[in-house]
């Protein structure tokens, strides 16, 4: 069974470096690539009635934007090099969702950047990388 | 941009000149007198009462409680049977990972709760316990328990017959299940459904201006005045100012689309509710030795009250009335809020909705009642409009700083209730008059107008009228629910069979 590498991106430079790292590995080993972007969302948040009524529409817009602005450019660039790559967008808590996606896609290695777009949150709550290292069921690589 | 500025300037000057007018002595009197005959007629019709053992019982209350009881038996005490599963659903045990990002059961419940938890839980309970004695608590809890079945029914229907518009937004509630649901039963029912839906929409608009708006503005202002020196304080006659500020904030949310305010509020409201409940529990625990006596007083008072006018029926009436006013079970507004949830099994939202009257009445109202009973601050000579003061006093005996916290809580609860009802009313308005920019804008301007009216004036008759409108919603709503009971039963039986057979997919643990 060939290896499947999953890269978590978030639009930051560090995420970009993680993609390059993963792409390099995929080139050498012929592994499949999943490029995943998680839209931060919690099932336990509070909202107004109107927000709930519009939520489905908003969700579609968020997914569309994530694909067009973040995932598709990366995926098409890597595809043009001849790599076997697929793009995924999902809502949820970043670390947890990456783990869920990893399970769904039989991922053997999750690769993320060390620093995401929110330094303060990472300091207070722990970075995505640290959460993954502590909980993921497969290997985790953190790219600086 | 200039159009917006012109519009805003006009709106502000309209509201400001109205408030200036409102300040003139005698204006409330004149308006009150002008509106009174109409308001009294309507309130009289809705609250048409008949005497039972010397107490005047409004028919609408009987209508609500009988429906709740019938539903409870028809669904074999679904309020007990589905309690555990409802909790599992809210917790997310059956959450489908592919629908991450959609409205969850928890979110639908939290949103609906923030619309119903409010002044009824805080002020109304004090009035009920004062007028009906501690025994009213027992009947209040019973009514809350039975009301869970009404919420179950209407919220299941709300999800089943909602409209999913092409642009992705969702629209649901009694107006839809009354039209679409009854239409499934044939042409005559379709006509009836249309009539009921229109009636519901009219009453809903009235309710959104009254109980969901003026009452909230009026009562939250009253509490603010309370903690800033009462009648002698600086704020005492500045109701118009308060009204303008609140109208501005509400306006920013509903017209300016500045969701930030509503978002902040919707995050703080649950926090305040938790503080309120914790403070109440703290008082109860600190007076732990008085708790058995309190429960004894409740049971005795429920069946053999001393010195309460109307005896047992009077006590029962106060308890039922408070529960009905507070959790709106049977009124249909919750069905609108719950209809946004992402699910293809409508009955699941019904299970989740069971928790609304449970939290609202059986938990929060009971805590308020216990605090009032234990601290002995209930007063049979209370003026019904001074309910918040009573609760404030009750908590103050133990936590001297609590009135300030309560004021903040009341303001936030009132604000979030107004935001919720502005949506319900808007949906009803556009159902009646069509959906376009003119109807949208006209409703919102009217809504803001009533915010200022509500806080500026002493409007006894108008407040009665507005409460009447909310209860009037229960007539078409429950009538439709009665006809649609078999539909709900079918959904319930199918789902319950799946649940018991283990065919439901549980969200995988990580």
Report on the structure:
The complex is a heterodimer of chains A (144) and B (510). Chain A is α/β, with parallel strands linked by helices. Chain A has one domain (4-143): 3-Layer(aba) Sandwich (Rossmann fold). Chain A is built from 5 helices and 5 strands; from the N terminus they run βαβαβαβααβ. Chain A has helices at residues 13-29, 49-80, 94-104, 119-125, 128-135; strands at residues 4-9, 32-40, 85-92, 109-113, 139-143. The radius of gyration of chain A is 15 Å and the shape is globular. Chain B has a two-stranded antiparallel sheet with strand order 1-2. The N and C termini of chain B lie far apart (51 Å). In chain B, 75% of the residues lie in helices and 2% in strands. Classes of the chains: A alpha/beta (144), B mainly alpha (510). Chains A and B meet through helix 2, strand 3 and helix 3 of A and helix 6, strand 4, helix 12 and helix 19 of B.
- Largest β sheet strand count, sense and barrel closure of chain A: 5 strands, parallel
The CATH homologous superfamily of chain A corresponds to HUPs
Q: Which ranges of chain A are low-confidence, i.e. pLDDT below 50, for 5 or more consecutive residues? A: none
CATH topology of chain B: Amino acid/polyamine transporter I
Average of per-residue pLDDT values of chain A: 90
Encode the helix/strand succession of chain A as letters.
EHEHEHEHHE
Q: If you consult CATH, what is the topology of chain A?
A: Rossmann fold
Could you report the average pLDDT of chain B, rounded to the nearest whole number? 86
List low-confidence stretches of chain B.
Answer: none
Q: How many discrete domains of chain A?
A: 1
**Total number of distinct structural domains of chain B:** 1
DSSP strand count of chain A: 5
Q: Trace the largest sheet of chain B across and list its strands.
A: 1-2
Name the largest protein-protein interface in this structure. A-B, 32 and 41 residues
| Shape call of chain A | globular
DSSP summary: helix tally of chain A:
5
Which class best fits the helix and strand makeup of chain A? alpha/beta
What gross morphology of chain B would you assign? globular
Q: Quick one: CATH class of chain B?
A: Mainly Alpha
């Amino acid at each position: 069974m060939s290896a499947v590498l999953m890269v978590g991106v978030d639009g930051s430079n560090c995420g970009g470096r993680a993609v390059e790292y993963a792409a390099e590995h995929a080139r050498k080993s012929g592994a499949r690539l999943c490029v995943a972007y998680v839209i931060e969302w919690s099932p336990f948040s509070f909202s107004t009635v109107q927000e709930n009524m519009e939520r489905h529409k908003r969700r579609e817009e968020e997914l569309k934007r994530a694909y067009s602005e973040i995932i598709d450019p990366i995926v098409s660039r890597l595809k043009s090099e001849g790599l076997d790559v697929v793009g995924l967008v999902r809502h949820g808590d970043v670390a947890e969702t990456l783990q869920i996606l990893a399970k769904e896609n039989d991922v053997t290695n999750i690769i993320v950047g060390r620093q995401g777009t929110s330094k303060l949150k990472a300091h207070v709550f722990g970075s995505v990388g640290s959460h993954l290292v502590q909980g993921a069921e497969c290997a985790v690589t953190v790219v600086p | 941009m200039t159009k917006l500025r012109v519009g805003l300037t006009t709106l502000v000057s309209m509201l400001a000149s109205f408030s200036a007018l409102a300040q003139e002595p005698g204006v409330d009197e004149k308006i009150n007198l002008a509106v009174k005959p109409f308001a009294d007629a309507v309130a009289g019709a809705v609250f048409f009462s008949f005497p039972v053992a010397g107490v005047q019982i409004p028919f609408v209350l009987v209508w609500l409680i009988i429906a709740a009881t019938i539903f409870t038996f028809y669904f074999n005490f679904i309020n007990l049977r589905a309690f555990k599963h409802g909790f599992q659903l809210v917790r997310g045990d059956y959450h489908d990972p592919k629908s991450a990002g959609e409205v969850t059961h928890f979110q639908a419940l939290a949103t609906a709760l923030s619309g119903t938890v409010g002044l009824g839980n805080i002020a109304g309970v004090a009035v009920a316990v004062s007028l009906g004695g501690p025994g009213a608590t027992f009947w209040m809890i019973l009514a809350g328990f039975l009301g869970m079945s009404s919420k179950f029914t209407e919220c299941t229907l709300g999800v089943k017959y909602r409209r999913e518009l092409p642009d992705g937004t969702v629209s649901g509630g009694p107006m839809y299940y009354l039209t679409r649901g009854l239409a499934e039963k044939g042409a005559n029912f379709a006509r009836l459904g249309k009539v009921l839906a229109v009636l519901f929409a009219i009453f809903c608009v009235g309710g959104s201006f009254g109980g969901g708006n003026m009452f909230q503005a009026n009562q939250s202002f009253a509490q603010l005045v309370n903690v800033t020196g009462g009648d002698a304080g600086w704020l005492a006659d500045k109701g118009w100012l308060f009204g303008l500020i609140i109208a501005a904030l509400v306006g920013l949310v509903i017209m300016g689309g500045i969701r930030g305010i509503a978002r902040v509020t919707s995050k703080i409201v649950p926090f305040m509710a938790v503080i309120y409940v914790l403070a109440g529990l703290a008082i109860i625990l600190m007076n732990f030795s008085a708790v058995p006596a309190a429960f004894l007083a409740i049971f005795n008072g429920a069946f053999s009250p001393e010195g309460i006018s109307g005896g047992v029926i009077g006590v029962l009436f106060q308890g039922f009335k408070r529960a009905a006013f507070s959790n709106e079970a049977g009124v249909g507004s919750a069905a609108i809020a719950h209809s946004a949830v992402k699910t293809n099994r409508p009955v699941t939202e019904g299970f989740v909705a069971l928790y609304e009257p449970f939290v609202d009445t059986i938990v929060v109202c009971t805590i308020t009642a216990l605090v009032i009973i234990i601290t002995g601050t209930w007063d049979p000579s209370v003026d019904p409009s001074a309910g918040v003061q009573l609760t404030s006093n009750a908590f103050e005996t133990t936590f001297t700083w609590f009135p300030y916290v309560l004021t903040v809580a009341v303001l936030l609860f009132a604000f979030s209730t107004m935001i919720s009802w502005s949506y319900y009313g808007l949906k009803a308005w556009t159902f009646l008059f069509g959906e376009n920019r003119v109807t949208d804008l006209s409703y919102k301007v009217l809504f803001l107008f009533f915010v200022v009216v509500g806080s500026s004036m002493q409007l006894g008759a108008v407040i009665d009228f507005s409460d009447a409108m909310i209860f009037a919603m229960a007539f078409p709503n429950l009538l439709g629910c009665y006809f649609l009971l078999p539909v709900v039963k079918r959904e319930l039986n199918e789902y319950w069979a799946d649940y018991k057979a283990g065919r439901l997919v549980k969200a995988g643990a990580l």
